[in-house]
Amino acid sequence: MNIQALLSNKINLAMIAAGASPDTDAQVRQSAKPQFGDYQANAVMSVAKVLNIPPRQLADKIVQRLDLAGIAQKIEIAGPGFINIFLDRQWLAAQVDHILKAPKLGLTPVIPQTIVIDYSAPNIAKEMHVGHLRSTIIGDATARTLTLLGHNVIRANHVGDWGTQFGMLIAYLEKMQRENADDMALSDLEKFYRAAKKNYDEDKEFAQHARAYVVKLQAGDEYCRSMWRKLVDITMEQNQLSYQRLHVTLTKEDIMGESLYNSMLPGIIADLKTKGLAVESNGATVVFVGEYKNKKGEPMGVIVQKEDGGYLYATTDIACAKYRYQTLGADRILYYTDSRQHQHLTQIWQIARQAGYVPESMPLEHHMFGMMLDKTGKPFKSRTGENIKLADLLDEAIERAGKLIREKNPDISPQELKQVADAVGIGALKYADLSKNRTTDYIFDWDNMLTFDGNTAPYIQYAYTRIISIFKRAAIDEEHLNLPVIITEDREAVLTTSLLQFEEIITTVARDGTPHVMCSYLYNLAVLFSSFYEHCPILNAGNEQTCQSRLKLALLTAKTLKQGLDILGIQTVEKM
To answer: The DALR anticodon binding domain covers which part of the protein (predicted)?
Structure first.
């Protein structure tokens, strides 16, 4: 059920009948204030200007031709020509009954697209840190949203598993094994990487071995490949533990590292040269991108092959775009990386389009995001200035949540405490990030995220458990709610309208990759339910009809909260 789309279609038809162009957008929006109805059509003024007639005169023509019988209780013209629509309460009630019986909360079926989403992207032989959090959870929320709508979503974990550093890592792994070091030393990947780098910088013989291994690895040497695979597997096994703890849907099958495109790179270079896009410049192979200029006003060059024959990230990313369109059959490709990557991505996309690897009609979207900051406004790091390991951040979130839960419920069993602390702690951490507009930086604050008041995950999770407790007290399940919904109170109508706007929110998140919109919606829904619950008795409603009707509103609220939190990758619990 998408009320906005339904109204837009009907108002567009009325506008065309009143003389507007067939491509006119009625600009239907949810009303900001109750006195303006539930929805507003805001396009009348601009269309009236084109038609050269007074806006209110055009609005009157539109309303006369507008068929909202059974949907709108009242339609009025306000101000210079706004069309305000007040939804009919009987129609609202009927939609609740329909949605409760429909699959996926009545979401409108979509024409499925193949959508590739590039997110998370950790490096090999390094542990994931807080810098990976935003890409991982924002990308995953979008993937979950698009999957729910019915699209074929390909999750692409573009891990950094290729490059010159692997000669160094292979050489150090070999040294460890030769010295009978325990493989478990790799469990602390940061120490392993630093030790390898130290050996590379201080031991000339080691560095020579490392450089030789780079050449052998790129040439497909079996020994180097096996050592490289071991490094990749150990790293991704650890990363998978973090994904599972974060309730992120990435699996080992979603790994599409830089190595996947290695065999494509010679052909890419040759093709770019043949098409006259790549030229020699100071020994390197360069593609000049006309839209970007240097300080002298000259086109900027993107190096795609170094003088020594080596390839760069740009080369891999061009091949990556080509692979995703031509091999995976993508209709749309989304990238979740921070804003510093924007120029790089737009440059390589331009090259990919000029080369004919990706058509202009196929969307390439950079859903960039800001940084996580501490209370002083600096990048969020440990006291020693190092990146905080993601695993340590998750541990602290669960520990803090456990203390909070014990304070509120000292009799909770250890098993229940573990389950609830995990759901609340991880949920609070993710929600604190997801609830912020992804394009902006935000301040990380434990105290604000782990509270049962305000726009937090615990507040919304508690609203869900509160509804579950109502059904437990009533000793009734949804199969026995067989009386229709009736809406007589204003708070019932407001809650119902919000519930029916769920698909509009999902559509926005799917289009823009903005999970904060879903967070705002869920918080507002929880607030509306709290007001409804306080002023509209449910179990003590006075008669069976009203009781069942309000139970149905509570049930749909619970289902919507649960589905919305699931889109964000946040768990619900039935007791807190």
So the answer is: 460-576
The identity of residue 51, as a single letter, is: L
Name the packing angle between helices 502-512 and 3-17 (round to 10°). 90
Q: How would you class 90 by CB atoms within 10 Å of its CB: exposed for 0-12, middle for 13-18, buried for 19 or more? A: middle
Any bridge partners for residue 372, and if so which?
442
| Calpha distance 546→523 (Å, rounded) | 26
Report all structural domains of the chain as residue ranges with CATH numbers, in order of start: 3-87 (3.30.1360.70), 114-160+273-366 (3.40.50.620), 164-256 (no CATH), 407-568 (1.10.730.10)
What residue type is 560 in one-letter code?
A: T
CB 143 within 8 A of CB 155: yes
Q: Is 272 helix (H, G, I), strand (E, B) or coil?
A: helix
Spatial contact of 420 and 428, defined as CB atoms under 8 Å apart: no
How far apart, in whole angstroms, are the C-alpha atoms of residue 219 and residue 215?
A: 6
Q: Measured between alpha carbons, how far is 457 from 434 in angstroms, rounded to an integer? A: 10
The three-state secondary structure class of 550 is: helix
Q: What residue ranges in 367-414 does DSSP mark as E strands?
A: 372-373
Instruction: From first to last of the 576 residues of the chain, give the pLDDT tens digit.
Output: 899 999 999 999 999 999 888 988 999 999 988 889 999 999 999 999 999 999 999 999 999 999 999 999 999 999 889 999 999 999 999 999 999 999 999 999 999 999 999 999 998 888 888 889 999 999 999 999 999 999 999 999 999 888 888 899 899 888 887 665 555 455 667 788 888 899 999 999 999 989 898 888 888 889 999 989 888 888 898 899 999 999 999 999 999 999 999 899 999 999 999 999 999 988 899 998 877 666 676 777 889 988 878 888 899 999 999 999 999 999 999 999 988 899 999 999 999 999 999 999 999 999 999 888 888 888 777 666 677 889 889 999 999 999 999 998 898 999 999 999 999 999 999 999 999 999 888 888 888 888 888 899 999 999 999 999 999 988 888 888 999 999 999 999 999 999 999 999 999 999 999 999 999 999 999 999 999 999 999 998 889 999 999 999 999 999 999 999 999 999 999 888
User: What DSSP state is assigned to residue 383?
Assistant: T
Model pTM? 0.91
Backbone dihedral angles phi then psi of residue 383, each to the nearest 5 degrees: -65, -25
Q: Which residues touch 430 (CB under 8 Å, ≥6 apart)?
A: 137, 246, 457, 568, 569, 570
Query: Rounded to whole angstroms, how far apart are CA atoms 536 and 529?
Result: 10
Structure tokens at 45: 């003024």
Other CB atoms within 10 Å distance of the CB of residue 269: 20
What is the distance between the alpha carbons of residues 75 and 86, in angstroms, rounded to a whole number? 6
- Give 197: exposed, middle or buried? Use CB within 10 Å, 0-12, 13-18, 19+: middle
Determine the Cα angle at 362 with ends 358 and 368, to 5°: 100
- The residue count of the chain comes to 576
